[in-house]
Design goal:
Enzyme class: hydrolase
GO molecular function, one term: 6-phospho-beta-glucosidase activity
Mean pLDDT: 95
Number of domains: 1
EC number: 3.2.1.86
Keywords: Glycosidase, Hydrolase
Family: Belongs to the glycosyl hydrolase 1 family.
Shape: globular
Order of helices and strands: EHHHEHHEHHEHHEEHHHEEEEHEHEEEH
CATH superfamily: Glycosidases
Radius of gyration: 21 Å
Largest sheet: 8 strands, parallel, barrel
CATH topology: TIM Barrel
Number of helices: 15
């Protein structure tokens, strides 16, 4: 007789929490020996619906180096987590966080990226942050490289375009795994690794002067170097701290066919493959066959060294994490309206509502993604980014009433619960920007995600005072009930 039963809710050890990135919250960009990062030379966007994160040239980088202020470069100031981390983590603990996803600033630990010895002051800062987390029973979930690297590696190696960067990265990761053995249980190698095919933010390589073909050649070659570095880091982690787990992280771009026309279905399948290629390599440990045709038809020739394929096979991740914000539709023709969201790369779905930034809101798509990932990979899954960017306002009563955020999160948590009932092995959920952060794509402050409001405007003016939004108490209730009380 078949004895297995359907799960009825989230597992008891489910990891509820929130997520941030060093270059969006820390500040302290030029203190305690920290070096300049690639994130800190990207100017704030002039159009909030167009990402500026990849718009760099050799000239703009030099201008940023010469500019020793944060006026045009808000990621240099963040929201000053560097000096507010105790206050912020205490607030996370008040909500009941089981886990806090944060990233490390590589240039805080290796200011130039190619030193043989780390900056002790940088390591000490993270010692203190992790100690503060453990003080409240919060597990750190650490992203090793989240949309930044030491700028010096761009100037000397052109970032990940050079294979030499692998050694610099794995020197860094070895230091981390040894220093934080028994302190950090959960690691991620690269944030949204598919961003490397979008340009500078993912690769640290300046390619603005190249043709489209040469850009893609460089980006896929840089990506291969990241794959190898990630695999080496996984092996290091397993050898140095066998109790730790290390995963991959993907920006999930779930897409649907525009119509039942087989041509549209095939076009959507191809788009899906091009998104899942990254996790195919990191979870399955090999390049999928469908990419052979893609590379051939697009004139991309990857250079691999002897042993690379074995490294990928040996360096498979323990779990798969991903960000989920939206879905799109794909057509075999150009007859669909394009979505306006600055992360959307497909057509607009007439059945979905959109946020103020044009991001299509699709909670059911999260359940679809979870099921597809589980069917394809059979490894534990972790939703490490999900949230609603909005312009929050302080009302006449001095509070921030963000019911729209609560509604968004409630609908997505409901669909995660359905996926768990479907049989998906889901580890946890960390909402994006649990405290207001500088936007990754546009470097604005007005686009807020957090449960905690930070008094700072787009120009950096404000007291930096932290204030609880209505969603703060709501999420506290969600965590306390393990996702049962979503009212």
């Amino acid at each position: 007789m078949y004895s297995k039963t359907m799960p009825t809710g989230f597992p008891k050890n489910f990891l509820w929490g929130g997520a941030t990135a060093a270059n969006q919250v820390e500040g302290g960009w030029n203190v305690d020996g920290k070096g300049l990062t690639t994130a800190e030379v990207v100017q704030k966007a002039t159009d909030r619906k167009v990402m500026s994160m990849n718009e760099v040239t050799k000239e703009s980088v030099q201008a940023a180096i010469d500019d020793q202020t944060d006026k045009l470069y808000p990621k240099r100031r963040g929201v000053d987590f560097y000096h507010h981390y105790k206050e912020d983590i205490k607030l996370f603990a008040e909500m009941g966080f089981k886990v806090y996803r944060l990233s490390l600033a590589w240039a805080r630990i290796f200011p130039k990226g190619d030193e043989t010895e780390p900056n002790e002051a940088g390591l000490k800062f993270y010692d203190n942050v992790f100690a503060e987390c453990h003080k409240y029973g919060i597990e750190p979930l650490v992203t090793i490289s989240h949309y930044e690297m030491p700028l010096n590696l761009t100037l000397t190696n052109n970032g990940w375009a050079s294979r030499k960067t692998i050694a610099d990265f794995t020197r860094y990761t070895e230091v981390l795994f040894k220093r934080y053995k028994g302190v950090v249980k959960y690691w991620l190698t690269f944030n949204e690794i598919n961003a490397s095919t979008w340009g500078f933010t993912g690769t640290g390589a300046i390619d603005s002067d190249l043709s489209l073909h040469d850009q893609m050649q460089l980006r896929y070659q840089a990506l291969h170097h990241e794959f190898v570095a990630s695999a080496i880091a996984v092996k290091q982690c397993h050898e140095i701290d066998p109790e730790a787990q290390i995963g991959s992280m993907l920006a999930r771009m779930q897409t649907y066919a525009n119509t039942p026309n087989p041509a549209d279905v095939r076009a959507a399948q191809l788009q899906d493959q091009l998104n899942l290629f990254f996790t195919d390599v990191q979870v399955r440990g090999e390049y999928p066959e469908y990419m052979n045709r893609y590379f051939a038809e697009n004139g991309i020739e990857l250079t691999m060294e002897a042993g690379d394929e074995q490294l990928l096979a040996e360096g498979k991740v323990d779990y798969l994490s991903f960000s989920y914000y939206m879905t799109t539709i794909t057509s075999a023709t150009d007859d669909v309206e394009q979505a306006s969201g600055n992360l959307s790369m497909g057509g607009k779905n007439p059945y979905l509502k959109s946020s103020a930034w044009g991001w299509q809101i699709d909670p059911v798509g999260l359940r679809i993604t979870l099921n597809e990932f589980w069917d394809r990979y059979r490894v534990p899954l972790f939703v490490v980014e999900n949230g609603l960017g909005a312009e929050d306002e302080i009302s006449a009563d001095g509070k921030i009433h963000d019911d729209y955020r609560i509604d968004y999160l409630r609908q997505h948590i409901e669909q995660m619960k359905e996926a768990v009932k479907d049989g998906v092995d889901l580890m946890g959920y960390t909402t994006w920007g649990c405290i207001d952060v500088i936007s990754a794509g546009t470097s604005e402050m007005s686009k807020r995600y957090g449960f905690i409001y930070v008094d700072q405007d787009d120009e950096g003016n404000g007291s930096l005072k932290r204030m609880k939004k209505d969603s703060f108490d709501w999420y506290k209730k969600v965590i306390a009930s393990n996702g049962e009380d979503l009212g």
